Amino acid sequence: MSSMELWYTEKQTENFGITAKIKQTYVHEQTDFQELAMIETEEWGNMLVLDGMVMTTVKDEFVYHEMVAHPALFTHPNPEQVLVVGGGDGGVIREVLKHPKVKKAVLVDIDGKVIEYSKQYLPSIAGKLEDPRVDVQVNDGFKHILDHKNTYDVILADTTEPVGPAAHLFTRGFYQGIYESLKEEGLFVAQTDNPWFKADLIQSVNRDVKEVFPIVRVFTANIPTYPSGLWTFTMGSKKARSAPGRCVQAAGARHEVLHASPASRGLRAAEVRRGSDQVIGYRPCSEKPISLWSRPHLADM
What we know:
Elements: E1 6-11, E2 17-30, E3 35-41, E4 45-50, E5 53-57, H1 61-75, E6 81-86, H2 91-96, E7 104-109, H3 112-121, H4 123-126, E8 134-138, H5 141-146, E9 152-158, H6 172-181, E10 182-191, H7 199-212, E11 215-222, E12 230-237, E13 247-248, H8 262-265, E14 268-269, E15 290-291, E16 298-299
Parallel strand pairs: 6-7, 6-9, 7-8, 9-10
Antiparallel strand pairs: 1-2, 2-3, 3-4, 4-5, 10-12, 11-12, 13-16, 14-15
Helix pairs in contact: 6-7
């Protein structure tokens, strides 16, 4: 008699997807905002799934969370006050707190269940949410930024896909709110999906951000469990001297003081471009890879 196997499948387009063998399912429920599943997989470890889409896995989460946090925090001269919109799994907060200049990090996620279950089933990711420098709020991130003008040095938008509760976090109004919530030398970074399946979205976001911020850059990283495996991030700066350079050249790169994880040490960072070739004619940066032990290089063209 053969044993039954359970597999999780994410249909990323009408004709393409990924699948992973499940060891066990911890949680599967409908929250007030979205369908939430927390599963253990054979290949990727524990996995958070929202509305049928992989949000994070224990095995590859470090790439995404490092890329949301470190480019802006290395670029800003004194990032004392940081806001994370979304990010209830706690991974971006964990990376933010590795920067000694950070005095306070506020996390605002609309779905408290994501925070609750991440603490329980993703402790290596969510472990820093109890740090005394962290203020965790269950609220609408858009409302929060509108209520906090000229407050933050860095704002990081770790949002889900532009559907459901996160749809309004991919609008010009949201980026304008971020601009007004940032201090004079403020920087922000947002995840902006993949260039293979969502090129139109990336171009639309880029246009909207450029209408608000004088300096805008796009960079990419390889994240195996995300659609297409290639992900983009958009950075905006209020001032030229705080600009994130023309490119950030190391996927998941960390300065030595940030204590690179064992998962990072054996890797050689793929080039992180100033955006994919599909994003409004960007030119690539240097082809030379950079060690993950090196500090992100913010080069000028």
